[in-house]
Amino acid sequence: MMSAQSQAPDEFAEAEASILRQPAPVWAVAFACVVAFMGLGLVDPILPAISAQLHATKAQTELLFTSYMLVTGCMMVFTGFISTRIGPKYTLLIGLLFITAFSFFAGRSGSVGQIVGFRGGWGVGNAMFIATALSVIVSSARGSAASAVILYEAALGLGMSVGPLLGGTLGSHSWRYPFYGVAILMAIGFIAVLLFLRGVPKPAHRASILAPFQALRHLSLLTLGLTALFYNFGFFTLLGYAPYPLHMSAHGIGYTFFGWGVLLAITSVFVAPKLAERFGVLRTMYGILTLFAADLLVMGLGIHSQIALVICIIVAGAFLGVNNTLITTAVMQAAPVERPTASAAYSFVRFVGGAVAPWLAGKLSDAVGPAMPFYVGCIGVLVALGILFLGRNVLRHVNASSH
User: Fold this and answer.
1) Residue 284 to residue 281: CA distance in whole angstroms
2) Do domains 24-197 and 212-402 have the same CATH topology?
3) How far apart are the C-alpha atoms of 2 and 208, rounded to whole Å?
4) Where is the Major facilitator superfamily (MFS) profile domain positioned along the sequence (predicted)?
5) Hey, what CATH class is 212-402 in?
6) What is the pLDDT of residue 144?
7) Sequential DSSP letters for 161-201
8) Which residues, in sequence order, are CB contacts of 85 under 8 Å at separation 6+?
9) Mean pLDDT throughout 257-284?
10) Using CB atoms within 10 A of its CB, is residue 217 exposed (0-12), middle (13-18) or buried (19+)?
11) pLDDT band with cut points at 50, 70 and 90 for residue 36
C-alpha cells in the first residue's frame, strides 16, 4: 500500500488532466464562485473614493473588510450544521440571496457605518456560500481532491482578477455602482445554482455545531489555520490597504489589481501543482511565504514609488495563487474529519483572526506612516512561516515530495 506522501505527487500530476472533465453541478457552483469572488474584488478600487466622499478615515473604511471577515469567520462554524439539515443546494441559494440583498443595501448607504453593517450581513451569506461551495466541488468533482481544489482556486483567481477591473470601470462613475454590480452578479449566480445544481444529496448525518471546534484538536489542522491567520495579515494588507498609497483613480487601481488577479489565477492552476510535485507542499510554501514577505518589505521601502508598488502588487499575485492552492489542498487532507468540517474549522481561525489586519493597517498608516502596514504585514507572513515550519512534523502526511 502506498503512503500518503508517495500518493500526493500522482494526485497533483493528474489534477490538471481531470480539471476540465466535470459534471454540470460542479460547473454551476464554480461559476457562482467566480461571481462571488468577483464581488470581493469589485469593492477594492473604490475604497479611497468612499473615504473621501463619506469623510471617513482609512481605518473606518477598512472596517468594510473587517466586518465582512469577522462575520464570515464566525458564521463558518454554523455552515456544516445548516447544510447537513437543509442540504448543500439550499445553503448555497440562501447564501447567494444574502449577498445579493446586502450588496444592494450597501450601495444605498449614506454613511460608512451603514456600509460596514451591510458588509457584515454580506459576510453571513459569504460564509454559507464559500464553505458549502468548496465541499460541493470537492465531493462532486471527477478526479482527485487536488483537481477539485485547483478548480475552486481557478474560480477564485478568475473572479478576483475580473472583479477589480469591473469595479474600477463602475467605480469611476460612482462608488455605489460596484455594489449594485455585485448584486446583479450574485443574482445571476443564484439562477445558475438554482437551475443546474442537481443530484447533490444531503449528507448522511447531521453535523454538530461543536464539530469545527473539535476538529481543531488535530494539531495538523490547527497549524494550517494559524498559518493562514498570520498569512492573512499580509494578504489583506495588500488587498485592503494598498489602494491608498497607490494614489490612482478607480480605473488605475482596477487595472493594477486585474494584473494581480490574472497572475493569481494562472499560478493557482498551472504553477502550484508543478511546484508541489517537484519540491513538496511544505517546502514550496516555505519558499512562497518567504518571497511574499520580501515583496511586502519592498513595498514598505518603496512606499513613495508608484511604479514599485504596482510591480510588487502584481508580482504578489503569483505568490498568493500558489500558496492559496497548496494550503487549501493541505487542509482537505490534514485531519481525519469530514471535508466540510475541516473547511469550517480552518476558515473560522483564519477569518476571525485575520479580520483585524485591514483595520490595523488603516490605524498604523494614520498614526505612524504609510509604509508601516506593509512592514507589519511582512512580519505577519514571517510568523506564518515560522508556525508552518514548527508544525512540519504533524503535516508530514500532506507534504508531497517527488523524491
Assistant:
1) 5
2) yes
3) 33
4) 25-395
5) mainly alpha
6) 65
7) HHHHHHHHHHHTT-THHHHHHHHHHHHHHHHHHHHH--S-P
8) 202, 206
9) 90
10) exposed
11) confident
Cβ within 8 Å of residue 71, ≥6 positions away: 120, 121, 123, 124, 127
Burial of 21 (0-12, 13-18, 19+ CB in 10 A): exposed
Residue 34 pLDDT grade (very low, low, confident, very high; cuts 50, 70, 90): confident
Whose cell is 494598498? That residue is: 242
- How many whole angstroms from its chain centre is CA 299? 21
How many residues appear in the chain?
Answer: 403
Q: How far apart are CA 210 and CA 197, in angstroms?
A: 28
C-beta of residue 281 within 8 angstroms of C-beta of residue 329: yes
**Does domain 24-197 sit in CATH 1.20.1250.20?**
yes
Residue ranges per domain, the chain?
A: 24-197, 212-402
Residue with cell 459534471: 23
Q: Are 144 and 151 in contact (CB under 8 A)?
A: no
Q: Does the CA dihedral 175-181-182-183 come out positive or negative? A: positive
| Cα–Cα distance, 258 to 305 (Å, whole number) | 20
